[in-house]
Amino acid sequence: MGLNVFLSGEIHTDWRNEIETGCGDAGLDVTFASAVTDHGASDDCGPAIMGAESDKFWHDHKSAKLNAMRIRKGIADADIVVVRFGDKYKQWNAAFDAGYAAALGKSLIVIHGPDHQHALKEVDAAALAVCEHPKQVVDMLRYISNGTLPA
Questions:
Q1: At what angle do helices 92-103 and 56-77 cross, to 10 degrees?
Q2: Is residue 122 part of a domain?
Q3: C-beta of residue 24 within 8 angstroms of C-beta of residue 18
Q4: 134-146 and 15-25 helices cross at what angle (nearest 10)?
Q5: Does any domain span residue 67?
Q6: Within a 13 Å sphere around the CA of 6, how many CA atoms are in the beta-carbon half?
Q7: 27-49: string of b/e by CB count within 10 Å (b at 16+)?
Q8: What Pfam families does this protein map onto (predicted)?
Q9: Spatial separation of the C-alpha atoms in residues 110 and 83, rounded to whole Å
Q10: What pLDDT, in 10s, does the model give residues 97-141?
Q11: Within a domain: residue 57?
Q12: I need a surface site. Which of 18, 47, 49, 138 has the fewest CB within 10 A?
């Protein structure tokens, strides 16, 4: 069973690579999509493509809308959406992506540490699975794909 998985959330660790590598090593038929993870490119894409803005609000506004097109397409095309909340920053965009995925009825997996449990209780309630580590996502995708448990 082939799966389309959209990876959303924090961009400061290599969790996406851990999941992609783990699924590849397990021989799973999974296609991944993601938001742009180059922080500078993501922040500056709007003005770089549509013209500079002297006001930071409009600079961010252009970039946010351009990024939203990519993210909406990725979530809409996904069978499963994985959203990771990191420890260092508040990822309001990740919470928005989780809500958007839930509103579309997408299967949602949320990753975060125990320190975020209370703050993300509503996001967790919308998810079909909540875990703490990328390896757990690989194990979930293995189970969903072929019904086998981790060795």
A1: 40
A2: yes
A3: no
A4: 40
A5: no
A6: 24
A7: ebebebbbbbeeeeebbbbbbee
A8: Nuc_deoxyri_tr3
A9: 5
A10: 999 999 999 999 999 999 999 999 999 999 999 999 999 999 999
A11: no
A12: 49
**Closest CA relative to residue 74, chosen from 23, 37, 41, 118:** 37
| Count of domains forming the chain | 1
Q: 134-137 long-range CB contacts below 8 Å, 24 or more apart?
A: 134/15, 134/18, 134/19, 134/22, 134/84, 135/18, 135/22, 136/111, 137/19, 137/22, 137/82, 137/109, 137/111
**Residues in the chain, overall count:** 151
* Single-letter amino acid, residue 123: V
Domain that residue 137 falls in: 3-35+76-146
CATH number at residue 127: 3.40.50.2300
Q: Give a yes or no: residue 130 inside a domain.
A: yes
Contact 42, 68 (CB under 8 A): no
List pLDDT tens digits, range 23-56.
Answer: 999 999 999 999 999 989 999 999 999 999 999 9
